[in-house]
Amino acid sequence: MTRALGRVTIAIGLLSAACATRPASEQRTATPEPTSSEPSAHHHEHMAELPASPGAGFTVADVRFMQNMIGHHAQAIIMSEMAPSRGASDNVLRLARKIDISQRDEIGFMKQWLTERNQAVPSDEHAHTMAMPGMLTEEQMAQLAAARGQEFDRLFLRFMIGHHQGALQMVQELFKSPGAGQDSDIFRFATDVDADQRDEIFVMQGLLDTLREEPR
Questions:
Q1: What are the structural domain ranges in the chain?
Q2: Tell me, which fold does domain 3-14+67-213 have in CATH?
Q3: What is the torsion angle, in degrees rounded to the nearest 10, for the CA atoms of residue 123, residue 172, residue 157 and residue 49?
Q4: pTM given for the model
């Protein structure tokens, strides 16, 4: 095992442990606006919109953030589910498993938040048709599905980094919206998404750099 790969493997373990022990009430300050190394597959004008209304302590932007992030997470889960059957490496398998578990849990939280506030909840079918920053096109999803072994690892890491950067953009836009992000649940969730996905981007970039150093 190379030193670089060893460091990344340790980072994956630390990342999993940190996410498992992070207090739900921990608050973070949003970090600077991300810049994506991958072209965004979609733009905001293409977003599918469900009914949304403001309420006590939350804005329409808060509701839209939760609705849209459900669709965003849904695609990441589909991507992660591909890993076991595409010959992914152990490190990528562990990362994909973590993304799958954590984002399923977060979808459950977002659906509950919307339901408790009498807001529209995306159906599974609707979630898979929504378009947000960083999401893959149908062609990219097909490319990922067709890849095997080390090529799958490379594509998964590249695409998931871009996907995560899209989520960071969504968080930044939430906090830029007047009055949004003030609900305590929204604030904790959005800042956790920001921190977790930045941590995962760091790990994925390390794995991708290691793959670039290895012969095909």
A1: 3-14+67-213
A2: Ferritin (1.20.1260)
A3: 20
A4: 0.78
